[in-house]
Amino acid sequence: MGLLKKLRKYVGGRRLVWPIPYAEGMRLDEITVRDPFVIKDGKGGYILAGTIYHYNFNDSYGTVIYKSDDLKTWRGPFTVLEKSGFEKEYRDFWAPEIHFAGGRYRLLVTLSPSGEKRGTYMFSSDTPDGKYDGGIRLTPDGVSCLDGTLTEDNGEYWCIYCKEYVECDDGEIRAVKLKSDLSGTDKDSDTLLFKASDNMYKPTRFRQKITDGPFCFFENGERKLLWSTRTSDRKYVQLVAKSESGKVTGEWTQQGALCTADGGHGMIFEDYSSQRYLILHSPDARTIFTKKYERPVLIKL
Questions:
Q1: Mean pLDDT (whole number) for 238-246
Q2: For residue 28, what are the CA distances in angstroms to 38, 50, 67, 111, 294?
Q3: Which among 203, 213, 255 is positioned nearest to 234, based on CA atoms?
Q4: Residue 266 CA neighbour count, 13 Å, CB half
Q5: The predicted structure's pLDDT at residue 16
Q6: Given the DSSP bridges, would you call strands 104-113 and 90-101 parallel, antiparallel or unpaired?
Q7: Among residues 203, 159, 194, which one has the least CA distance to residue 173?
Q8: Closest by alpha carbon to 111, among 95, 128, 134?
Q9: Is pTM beyond 0.85 here?
Q10: Could you count the other beta carbons within 10 Å of the beta carbon of residue 289?
Q11: 14 falls within a domain
Q12: How far is 247 from 273, CA to CA, in rounded Å?
């Protein structure tokens, strides 16, 4: 790594102690994570997963979760996937999501295997906070992809993911269907849903168009998709698209923004009383000079 990259890496972040010390009674604005994802644990509580960096954008040591009984105070972290537990070397551990599918809990996380392109992998566990194992790649081999999410369509599961702008300049959101036993994907089903440039915000950053953080949800019976990009003024925005056919494969039309205040990579969930929330991270990047760090932001819908 060159000197300039090392300097940017230091200036852009802060060093975290690993393992991160356990704490209780934390508010969301005291937890530093990107890409927050919340799931109910089935016992009256909640689990928060997210990306945690040793330095900004690099050197994650694994996937951790936090737990809460009321969405107000949190305890943790608890490690569910650790870098040192793999025989092969992996980096990143980005954008973890936990879904219940096929009778088990599925952890989707973006990894960069040594000598291979970045992609989204799926691990499995019998409990949402259990140790996850298995590890199968859902996104195509030989293509740099990230931020995979899981959704169901007519009894079939699909992984919706981002093909990175580093591969195609105009970043893409794509979908690939999983096999019926969730042991892999049907490569012939891989479908382009839309591109970064399809939305009204003209997403450009250094002439590159970014797709980030897809998440599928339903509103008034309509299938919709959260996704994020960076605009020409370098702001991170939370966008929404709608499937006109109701199917994963679309056609998808852009619906505008839910958040333009430098926040994104969100998801929507319901609490035990059916109250819906949007959770996203904001601001988009931390710096040691401003002392601004990515925090989960919970918004009642």
A1: 97
A2: 12, 12, 11, 25, 10
A3: 203
A4: 33
A5: 63
A6: antiparallel
A7: 194
A8: 95
A9: yes
A10: 8
A11: no
A12: 28
